[in-house]
Write a structure and sequence with these properties.
single chain, alpha+beta, six-stranded antiparallel barrel
Length: 323
């Protein structure tokens, strides 16, 4: 009778429930690394210490980065001063350009008058109406007007060149100011990176830094482990026939053998564990032996587990009710 009852129980369990001991607690482990190098002057956390998002964890010596920021701001101030001088030169050259243009217009008017006056005197001189002295005077006035017009034209061209040069110089200084402003912002960022804050709520783990250590950019210093965890159970492919998200699960954690946690199936991975590994197996070989594959299933707790010390890596045994 006992054997029959055990067989009946096993039959019910195999058809209505699926379980595996290839299951572990998983969670996010956020590695904290510096974005700048330098000695650690202030360490504010210890192993397994709880932290809140935004809490200051440690501080790297900021003096070098403060000096670089001051240098960048000084260069920016110098460039802005040069921009003021360049703008003044542009304004002055623009005024000179307008004056030279007005002088050229005036010289052109005088030249036009001198040309007409010379033509009139030249015609009258041929007929003997005016003396040679008057004719020579009109010819001389024409030569002077031509020279003045040429001089005014050359000065206008020179002023135009100076104005273009001052404008180009101003544009160069403006571009330099933009570059220096970017350098100032980068220096401010680097200075802010000397203080490292907690990226999330959780507990400190894997702390490998001590006060006074010289740390490099990207060097892992510690990790923040959030309290939220879940279970990843690797079920055999034959166990997934009737399994789907939303089904009820009882999770037995090895650390708490007398407690069963309520949970549910959250999702089923779209690839086997072997296929999604770094080096998936190559089965196209002559010595192939069929091996039962396992598919990771994510299981999420339904009840509050904050009173229990459930951490990533713990072994668990989930039981899924499939019918």
């Amino acid at each position: 009778v006992l054997l029959i009852m055990l067989g009946f129980y096993a039959a019910i369990m195999s058809t209505h429930y699926q379980s595996t001991d290839d299951a572990f607690v998983e969670g996010r482990i956020i590695s904290v690394a510096p974005r700048v190098a330098g000695p650690v002057v202030n360490l504010l956390v210890d192993d397994n210490q709880p932290v809140k998002k935004g809490d200051l964890l440690l501080e790297i010596d900021p003096n070098d980065y403060q000096v670089k920021l001051d240098q960048a701001e000084a260069k920016l101030a110098e460039a802005k001063a040069r921009l003021n001088v360049s703008n003044h030169d542009v304004s002055k050259n623009t005024s000179d350009m307008h004056q030279a243009s007005d002088d050229r217009v005036s010289a052109m008017s005088k030249l036009d008058f001198a040309q007409k006056d010379y033509k009139r005197y030249n015609d009258m001189y041929k007929t003997g109406v005016v003396s040679k002295q008057d004719y020579d005077r009109s010819s001389k006035d024409l030569d002077v007007s031509k020279a003045n017009y040429q001089s005014a034209s050359n000065r206008t061209k020179a002023m135009k060149s100076e104005l273009d040069s001052s404008i180009a110089k101003t544009q160069t200084v403006q571009a330099e100011i933009q570059r220096l402003e970017a350098e100032v912002e980068q220096a401010k960022l680097n200075l802010s990176y000397t203080k490292i804050y907690a990226p999330s709520d959780g507990l400190i783990a894997s702390r490998s830094v001590e006060q006074g250590n010289y740390v490099q950019t990207g060097q892992p210093l510690l990790a923040v482990v959030p309290r939220r965890v879940w279970v990843v159970a690797n079920f055999k492919e034959g166990q997934l026939t009737h399994m789907h998200p939303g089904q009820r699960v009882w999770v037995k954690v090895d650390t708490y053998p007398n407690k069963k946690f309520k949970a549910h199936v959250d999702s089923i991975q779209r690839a086997t564990g072997a296929k999604s590994s770094l080096f998936p197996p190559e089965n196209a070989v002559g010595s192939y032996v069929k091996i039962v594959q396992r598919v990771p299933v994510k299981i999420v707790f339904d009840e509050d587990y904050s009173k229990f010390n459930i951490v990533p890596g713990m072994s668990v045994v989930p039981t899924v009710k499939i019918k």
